[in-house]
Amino acid sequence: MVHVLITGAAGMIGRKLTQRLAGDGTLAGREITALSLIDITQPEKPAGFAGRLSLATLDVSDPEAVARCIATRPDFVFHLAAVVSGEAEADFDKGYRINLDGTRHLLEAIRREGAKAPYRPRLVFASSIAVFGAPFPEPIGDEFFSTPLTSYGTQKAVSELLVADYSRREFLDGISIRLPTICIRPGKPNKAASGFFSNILREPLAGQEAVLPVSDDVRHWHASPRAAVGFLLHAAAIDLASLGARRALTMPGLAATVAEEIEALRRVAGDKAVKLIRREPDAVIAKIVAGWPRTFDARRALALGFRADASFDDIIRAHLEDEFGSRVPVLQHG
Amino acid sequence: MVHVLITGAAGMIGRKLTQRLAGDGTLAGREITALSLIDITQPEKPAGFAGRLSLATLDVSDPEAVARCIATRPDFVFHLAAVVSGEAEADFDKGYRINLDGTRHLLEAIRREGAKAPYRPRLVFASSIAVFGAPFPEPIGDEFFSTPLTSYGTQKAVSELLVADYSRREFLDGISIRLPTICIRPGKPNKAASGFFSNILREPLAGQEAVLPVSDDVRHWHASPRAAVGFLLHAAAIDLASLGARRALTMPGLAATVAEEIEALRRVAGDKAVKLIRREPDAVIAKIVAGWPRTFDARRALALGFRADASFDDIIRAHLEDEFGSRVPVLQHG
Q1: What is this model's ipTM?
Q2: Which B residues in the span 87-126 are in contact with A, Cβ-Cβ below 8 Å?
Q3: Residue B27 gets which letter from DSSP?
Q4: Residue B235: enclosing H or E segment and its boundaries?
Q5: CB of A58 within 8 A of CB of A105?
Q6: Beta bridge pairs of residue A36
Q7: C-alpha to C-alpha distance for B133 and B144, rounded to whole angstroms
Q8: A147 touches chain B (CB under 8 A)
Q9: How far apart are the C-alpha atoms of B1 and A334, rounded to whole Å?
Q10: CATH numbers and ranges of domains, chain A
Q11: For residue B188, what pLDDT is reported?
Q12: Chain B partners of A146 at a C-beta cutoff of 8 Å?
């Protein structure tokens, strides 16, 4: 008998989390009787959910709107709402308004609701490995400092600190999970500097050309959308007492080079798919990517039972299952 | 020909910094022609300052008041205003309002001023080793993560992240310096959990009894008020380009046990002074202090030329010089 709230429910991960919760019908072993979905654009109605469903178009930077939402006292809050890295860098005000003030309004609404009558929901905050910036140790350990090189990373790091303090004060029971770069992102190629990690798999799998702007030896830290949803669900279910005041956790991921990605593509979809990757070195993207973390020692998360994808072959197979029902589109185009 | 602004100018460090600047008449090798002092209580007029002086009673949590202050375009901003740890823990709203929103209003006022006409002041933010919380490595290195165990520490850690991001975006040229526990704090004994580090020296030096609530082997990280003022001045003067995006620095300090403090007192003021220390173990204070950092490897700050007190003998001598003109009061009380 639990009520679940998802902010940013219309986003890619939000939609997948919603669909998974609607399908499971349970969270942390308890029946989901109410699901509240909010986003700046109208969230979609998930298929097959029998409980009470609430869909709302709402800006998390509006404290009154957030307070009205929290007044319904959800037991679980997944806080996914955010403007992405590129937008937060291009529009300084908007990034701080959504990614920092939005988080703070949500935490404050929970605290104020709890001041009226006891209330201490589980809050799962989707943070990012963007809280880290080069130079790095290899691998990056759980005690390495937050050194963001973007306003987005700064806003995530600040939100982590707030989630930890509000948890320590027992206003809520929160955890921040730092998601790896999501790969394979479904949908169209976008202009994100990280887009190519997905593009060079997703497009060839669909029989389309893809551009690779960096060299094959670039290493990065990945998780499938399915693994990311798994992290969120696990974070909602586990006992957080052992975390103490240290409520931010780097999620396990798959450290892989572009070359390893490509070899996995070859194994799953053959040489024909690999030939659709066109190398077009881009010095700007190469420079951005050089500042990104490559590999982590995420032992705290592993000890708590968070599990990464086992291989890039698995990431590709999960993509095919989730997006195409396991059909390999390139084989059909051949 | 520079204009210097100090927030929190009526506080202990603010007053000492003000007096030093007024006495020197220069900062970073340039003549100070204007000095603006703001605090929630009226700052004192410093002795011997020949330039334009502005004293204002102002709450940093009032964005319009802060903007009016920044509209005078100071070249250097020392941001010391804060409510202390105990108060930020007791009054959650006030702590966030002053220590987080206050910093943000100041940074935003600078950014908005710079949007009108080029303006990029040097900002020196007084942070604290309270951004760290146990368990710790020994010593704590420059890349150890911020794990505050208080709302005060959280607010300082958030402010550090903001100073770094606003610096990276070139809205200002900022540095956050994490001050050690200040010892010997002049004035009366207060109820701060850290108070005894100062009390057991200051009171016996004045011929008064002092209570020691922890065991003699407690080790902590100290700086004299004089060293703290030196850090602030040095932070204002050095080139920060080498810091890149990593704008928060742990200041060097003196790692010393209570026993070492007491032996220094004995060397400077004799057994008679030491006998004025009364041992009254306090389990609550002992527990709080056990969560505090003991020693740091502050090599980044050392490489930039920041210098700690050389010994506790020096800390005591600096106290006697600064507060009593080198007279040892206990010897007079004999």
Answers
A1: 0.96
A2: 92, 111
A3: E
A4: helix B225-237
A5: no
A6: A5, A54
A7: 11
A8: yes
A9: 74
A10: 2-182+223-250 (3.40.50.720), 195-221+254-294+310-333 (3.90.25.10)
A11: 84
A12: 145-146, 161
């005894």: which residue's tokens?
Answer: B196
pLDDT tens, position by position, A317-332: 999 999 988 666 655 4
In 3D space, the residue among B306, B222, B237 whose CA is nearest the CA of residue B21 turns out to be B237
B161–A157: do the CB atoms touch at under 8 Å? yes
**CA closest to A96 among chain B residues:** B162
Residue B54, beta-bridge partner list: B36
From B195, B188, B210, B327, select the one nearest B269 (Cα to Cα): B327
Nearest CA in chain A to B149: A245
C-alpha span between A293 and A131 (Å, rounded): 10
How many whole angstroms separate alpha carbon A306 and alpha carbon A232? 10
Please compute, for residue B17, the number of CA atoms within 13 A of its CA located in the half-sphere on the CB side: 34
Asked if A144 lies within 8 A of B143 by C-beta distance, the reply is yes
Whether pTM > 0.80 for this model: the answer is: yes
From B74's Cα to the closest Cα of chain A, the distance in A is 24
Measured from the Cβ of residue B16, the count of other Cβ atoms closer than 10 Å reads 18
pLDDT in tens, A69-127: 999 999 999 999 999 988 999 999 999 999 999 999 999 999 999 999 999 999 999 99
B324: contact with A, CB 8 A cutoff? no
**β A248-250/A210-212 pair status:** unpaired
Residues of A recognised as catalytic: 152
Residue holding tokens 């008998």? Answer: A1
Sort out which chain A residues have CB atoms less than 8 A from B245's CB and list them. Answer: 133, 147-149
Mean pLDDT in residue range B93-105: 98
* pLDDT exceeds cutoff 70 at A202: yes
Q: What angle do CA A170, A175, A176 make, to 5 degrees?
A: 135
Fill in the DSSP letter of residue A194.
Answer: T
**What would the two tokens of residue B180 be?**
């050690």
Q: What are the pLDDT digits (tens) for B23-51?
A: 999 999 999 999 999 999 999 999 999 99
Which residues of chain A neighbour B165 with C-beta distances below 8 Å? Answer: 148, 151, 154
Q: How far apart are CA A178 and CA A251, in angstroms?
A: 6
Of A35, A31, A29, A51, which Cα lies nearest the Cα of A237?
A: A29
